[in-house]
Structure formats: structure tokens, C-alpha cells
């Protein structure tokens, strides 16, 4: 096997997604500990204000205690190169998370056993389902009382519209939590807690009928475990890796991230089953990772990692071929070649200069303003990767320059923040006013703060009464013209020049849809 193919097959790139507080940060940290990427607990940022740690790059992130940005953490485990793409915990930054999900090959979804499926769990898994991204569930906090295991699986299936298959099963919960039975490897993993010290004891246990089970976990838990495992085998289909890879079945693990319990079971299964870098769809064709020409797309732009410099870092997901330092690549949107003398890779706490990268890797490219989210780099082929749509925002405000002496800085700042995907901007055709659309309240503050601190510009917001912005399209030119003319007041363009309908209320949107059946109203830009 060529070196290129073996490097490619070593890659596993995934994201951990969860409703805030379910334990994503804690789980990430434990995975990095297993990989030896960090040495101490507490080295990974939490989205809490009190902690300041590795992936905590931005000032605003620390100030607000919210994980605003997405970063990448790489580590090696059992000869594999594992890349975890971190996603912001706060729901106002969900769009950032959606975009990150376009750059992964699989996802681990953390669910709090007490809270079950929560709002963000629903939204994020929906995005995974849209793309058939394979998902593994990790049910966390088994050291606390929570929902019954079967009820929780039902809830996951019903609310998230997925099929699940438990691959580990908890023995008790809360005070009575004794461990998990690893159904994937037929092992009993017992949890011993001595004050602050927790450890796992692993017993290979192929035959649950053996009376030894009683010796290890006691009579009642042994009986319950046998009944429950019997029920699992009867109710849930046998686990097949293809079903997981096709996004049809989601394996479920149980554990307690903070106690580092059940995490290794999941990781060991993950490395066995998780997909190697998958092909990516471009408008022109399907791009396979094994192709020898380098292709990749930018899914994230990170501003001002170092406040002393004004540069940004664009995160490029490599889709095919080998990426090399100091080599010319074509920036398709600009039609120009660029080379990168100092591409970086993120190995948990450290940024390292890299010479080459492979499909599945995420490379940080220093950028002085040439990249936008969704940009493609190739060795010359005209390709446009799909799947990085903008989502119809939910909150809107007019934005105005508050300092007439800083008009230029204001315009540049706004443009660059929009390129980074912080929010979307629409310019209304009838009066030229700029409207910022976001998915959450917080982005308005982020924009204001960053305009001031990074661009020395000030903005003010004004209320605007809007319900939705949606992209409009029609193959019928005449119908489109008529629509644009009749709804003149409600038409805007986005920063890509696409036409957008601004609906004041749900009713306005509905009537527009009824009155103009030839017009397609889209809720994502793609
Ligand atoms: P997030 O990134 O998904 O938002 O969650 P994070 O890991 O920050 O975890 C949220 C809280 O849940 C933290 O407590 C964390 O310690 C706790 N936690 C994580 N895993 C477990 C678990 O298995 N069992 C229990 N009982 N708790 C867990 P916190 O009090 O908010 O912060 P901290 O001071 O303890 O870090």
C-alpha cells in the first residue's frame, strides 16, 4: 500500500456535539488524555468563564465564558490519527457548529442521562441526518440518577428520528452504578470509586449466564443485567458496521465522562468502526479522497488568534490528495494561485508547523483576508464543494455606522466578519439599508465588540420588524420579475449577491408562497 493511502486510512475526523452542559468538554478532554495529547485533566477549555485553557483563543470567548469558536484537536491513538473538531457550546453559535459538521466524517453525540434529548441535541443531530453522517451516542453522567436506559433509547429514537443499537449497557445508575457491560467486546467493566480516585476493572465475560456474574456485581444487578441484555438482543437489530456507516443505525454507549468511565469502551469501538475520510460532493462531481490531486474547502475562519496581528486563520478540510507546504494551490473563487509557507496543524494544546497533510486533516492557513467560508482550493480544477449552506437567520437588526470618521473601517470590519460567517448581512434594495441576520442574540454583541476591538469602528443597531429571510429562486424568468416588482419593498441581496425575500411575519411569508407558486422560497442558501 502506498504511503499516501496508508496515511489516508489512518485518519478519523469527527465532531463531538451536545446540548450545553451535557459533558462535551469533559469527554473531549478524556479522549485527549487517552491519546496522550494532554497530560493533565483540566487542560481543555470548558465553556465556563472560570477556566482559561487550550482551545480558548479569543478574548471574547474568555470574557463571556462561551466557546465561540471551533478549533481542532488532533491526537494519535492505536496508530490512528484522530482529529476532533470542537464546536461551540452556546446555541447562538449553532451555525458555526453546522458548518463544522460539513467538515467531519462522523459525530459523537453526548446526551445527559438525566436530561435526555435536549433542544440542541435535536437541532445538531438533524444536521447530521441531513448529510447521513454516522453518529455514535454517548449517554453521560451515569454516576447520577437519570432516565431508565430503555426509556432513554426510545426517546432518542422518537425525538431524533434515528435507530439505535446499544453497544454498552449500564449496570445500575447513580449511587448504585456498578459499571457497564460492553456488548461489543463482551466484557464486564466495573467501576470502582474510592473518593476522588476512580478506576475501571475489566473482566472478559462472554457468558452472562455464568454464576460468576453474581460474585462480581451481586444478585439483583446480575439478574437485571441478564434480563436487560436479553431484551436488547431481542429488540434491537444485530450491530452491523455498514448500517452505522450509512447513517442507519447509531451505536449507543453509557458512561461517566468526568469519572473517565465508559469512555475508553467508546473510543476503542470508535477506532474500529468510524469511517475513514469520505468522498465529498462538489457541484461538478464527487471527489474521492484517494485521488492524487489535492482539493479542500474552508469551513471556518478564525480571526485574530494573536491580538497583536490582524491576520486570520482559515481552516481547510483536505478532501483529496496530499497537501504540501509552499506549494501553489488555486483559490477557485478568486482564480488565483496561493502558496502557504506556514500551514499549521493543531495537536491539542500546540500549534505545529506542518509539511504535509492528508484527506481528513484540517489545516490552518494564515490569511490576510482572501478567504470566505466555503472557498475551495485545488491544483487547478474548477471545483465547488457543496454542503456549506447559510441558514435562514432568525433575528434581525439594522446596522449603522456610529462614527462617520471611521466609515472605511466599519465597512471593512463588517465585510470581514460576514466572510467569517459570524452573521449574515442583507442589503435592502429599496433603501440600501443594511440588515444583520443572526441565529442568536449574542452575535449582535460579538459583532459590536469585534468592530470596536479589531477594526476601531463603532456600530449602532436599530430594531427591524422581520420574521424570516429566505432565498428566492425561479426558473420562470417572468414569474420572478413579477414577484420582484410586486414585492419591491421586501427584496434584499445577501453578501453573495443572491436575492432574498424579507418577510415581516409568518403570515406574509405564507401569503407570498400562496400568491407566487412559481417562486421557490428556500430556507438555506444552497
Ligand atoms: P459541555 O462542554 O457539554 O457544556 O459540558 P462540560 O463538559 O463543561 O460539563 C458540564 C458539567 O457537567 C461540568 O460540571 C462537568 O464537570 C459535569 N460533568 C461532565 N461529565 C460528568 C459525569 O459523568 N458525571 C457528572 N456527575 N458530572 C459530569 P460543572 O459543575 O458545570 O463544572 P466543573 O466545575 O465541575 O467543571
Concise account of the structure shown:
By secondary structure, the chain is an alpha+beta fold.
Describe the model.
45% of the residues are buried. Helix 4 runs parallel beside helix 5 (119-130). The model is unreliable at 46-58 and 60-70 (pLDDT under 50). The protein is of the alpha+beta class and 526 residues long. The chain is globular and about 80 Å long. It folds into three domains: 11-77 and 104-273, Rossmann fold, CATH 3.40.50.300; 280-378, P-loop containing nucleotide triphosphate hydrolases (Rossmann fold); 390-525, Alpha-Beta Plaits, CATH 3.30.70.3280. Helix content is 27%, strand content 30%. It has 14 helices and 31 strands. The site of guanosine-5',3'-tetraphosphate has 20 residues, from helix 2.
Amino acid at each position: 500500500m502506498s504511503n499516501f493511502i496508508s496515511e489516508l486510512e489512518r485518519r478519523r475526523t469527527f465532531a463531538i456535539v451536545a446540548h450545553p452542559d451535557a459533558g462535551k468538554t469533559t469527554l473531549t478532554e478524556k479522549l485527549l488524555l487517552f491519546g496522550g495529547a494532554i497530560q493533565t485533566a483540566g487542560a481543555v477549555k470548558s465553556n465556563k468563564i472560570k477556566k482559561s485553557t487550550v482551545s480558548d483563543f479569543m478574548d471574547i470567548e474568555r470574557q463571556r465564558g462561551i466557546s465561540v469558536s471551533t478549533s481542532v484537536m488532533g491526537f494519535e491513538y492505536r496508530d490512528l490519527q484522530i482529529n476532533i473538531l470542537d464546536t461551540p457550546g452556546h446555541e447562538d453559535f449553532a451555525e458555526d457548529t453546522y458548518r463544522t459538521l460539513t467538515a467531519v466524517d462522523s459525530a459523537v453525540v453526548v446526551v445527559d442521562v438525566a436530561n435526555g434529548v435536549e433542544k440542541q441535541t435535536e437541532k445538531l443531530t438533524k444536521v447530521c441526518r441531513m448529510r447521513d453522517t454516522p453518529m455514535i451516542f454517548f449517554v453521560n453522567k451515569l454516576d447520577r440518577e437519570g432516565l431508565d436506559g430503555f426509556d432513554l433509547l426510545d426517546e432518542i429514537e422518537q425525538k431524533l428520528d434515528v435507530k439505535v443499537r446499544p453497544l454498552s449497557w449500564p449496570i445500575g445508575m447513580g449511587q448504585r452504578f456498578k459499571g457497564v457491560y460492553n456488548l461489543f467486546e463482551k466484557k464486564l467493566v466495573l467501576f470502582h470509586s474510592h473518593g476522588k480516585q476512580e478506576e475501571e476493572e475489566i473482566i472478559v465475560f462472554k457468558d452472562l449466564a455464568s454464576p460468576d456474574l453474581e460474585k462480581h456485581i451481586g444478585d439483583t444487578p446480575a439478574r437485571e443485567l441478564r434480563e436487560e441484555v436479553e431484551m436488547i438482543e431481542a429488540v434491537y437489530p444485530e450491530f452491523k458496521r455498514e448500517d452505522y456507516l450509512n447513517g442507519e443505525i447509531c451505536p449507543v454507549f453509557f458512561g461517566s465522562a468526568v469519572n473517565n468511565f465508559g469512555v475508553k469502551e467508546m473510543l476503542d469501538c470508535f477506532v474500529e468502526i468510524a469511517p475513514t475520510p469520505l468522498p465529498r460532493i462538489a457541484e461538478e462531481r464527487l471527489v474521492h479522497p484517494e485521488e492524487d490531486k489535492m482539493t479542500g474547502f474552508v469551513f471556518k475562519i478564525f480571526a485574530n488568534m494573536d491580538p497583536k496581528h490582524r491576520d486570520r486563520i482559515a481552516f481547510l478540510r483536505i478532501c483529496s490528495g496530499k497537501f504540501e507546504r509552499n506549494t501553489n494551490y488555486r483559490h477557485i473563487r478568486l482564480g488565483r494561485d496561493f502558496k502557504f509557507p506556514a500551514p499549521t496543524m493543531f495537536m491539542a494544546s500546540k500549534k505545529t508547523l506542518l509539511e504535509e497533510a492528508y484527506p481528513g486533516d484540517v489545516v490552518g492557513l494564515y490569511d490576510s483576508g482572501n478567504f470566505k467560508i466555503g472557498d475551495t482550493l485545488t491544483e487547478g480544477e474548477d471545483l465547488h464543494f457543496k454542503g456549506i449552506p447559510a441558514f435562514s437567520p432568525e433575528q434581525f437588526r439594522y446596522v449603522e455606522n456610529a462614527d462617520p470618521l471611521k466609515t472605511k473601517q466599519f465597512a471593512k470590519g463588517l465585510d470581514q466578519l460576514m466572510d467569517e460567517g459570524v452573521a449574515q448581512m442583507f442589503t435592502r434594495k429599496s433603501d440600501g439599508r443594511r440588515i444583520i441576520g443572526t441565529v442568536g442574540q449574542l452575535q449582535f454583541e460579538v459583532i459590536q465588540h469585534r468592530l470596536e476591538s479589531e477594526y476601531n469602528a463603532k456600530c449602532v443597531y436599530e430594531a427591524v420588524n422581520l420574521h424570516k429571510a429566505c432565498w428566492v429562486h425561479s426558473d420562470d424568468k417572468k414569474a420572478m420579475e413579477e414577484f420582484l416588482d410586486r414585492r419591491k419593498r421586501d427584496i434584499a441581496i445577501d453578501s453573495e449577491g443572491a436575492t432574498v425575500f424579507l418577510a415581516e411575519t409568518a403570515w406574509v411569508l405564507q401569503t407570498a408562497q400562496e400568491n407566487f407558486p412559481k417562486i421557490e422560497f428556500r430556507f438555506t442558501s444552497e
